[in-house]
Structure formats: structure tokens, C-alpha cells
Amino acid sequence: EMYRACLAVAPTSSRPLAIGDSLHHDIAGANGAGIESVLVTSGIHASELGVEDGGTLSADRLDAVCTEYGARPDYAMLRMVW
After folding, report:
1. pLDDT for 26-43, tens place per residue?
2. Pairwise CA distance, residues 82 & 80, whole Å
3. What is the mean pLDDT of each run of 10 residues along the chain (82 residues)?
4. Whole-number pLDDT of residue 82
């Protein structure tokens, strides 16, 4: 619902991108709205992904966690720095 509201405000956006650390909320919402997404892996899923202490993200582990939550990002990055 939130992504649809954002798209209504900027209907001419050609490539919207959702960025978040929650597979359950941010990424699943983007999947449902048809928006590309980036998962910030150092967020709430860091321990599940094995990156809580700066570890290297494993594609297999990311796939397993995404399957568990039923949500899949288009991209993944370790942290968001503004």
C-alpha cells in the first residue's frame, strides 16, 4: 500500500527502487507492487544472513533466507550510507 501511494505522488518515475532491510515488509511490499528492490543485509536479517560481524554474504544463504520469507530482492548491499 505504501509503495502504491509513493507511485501515485510520482507517477512519471521510470524506474522506482525500494531500499530496505526487512524481507517481510520492505522487500515483500516492493515485490507486491512490482517495484525493483535492494535488501540492506546488515539490518534486521544480518544474523540470519551471516553478516552481523562483517562477514561475506553468501548467495546460497541469501537464497535460503529469501525463500523462508517468501520475498526476493533484485539486489543486495551490505549497508546503506547516506
Report:
1. 999 999 989 999 999 999
2. 6
3. 83 88 96 94 95 88 97 94 80
4. 78
User: Residue 48: which of 60, 36, 31 has the closest Cα?
Assistant: 60
CA distance 42 to 51: 6
Q: How far is CA 12 from the centre of its chain?
A: 23
As a whole number of angstroms, the distance between CA 3 and CA 24 comes to 14
Secondary structure, 3-state, the chain: CHHHHHHHHCCCCCCCEEEECCHHHHHHHHHHHCCEEEEECCCCCHHHHCCCCCCCCCHHHHHHHHHHHCCCCCEEECCCCC
Residues in the chain: 82
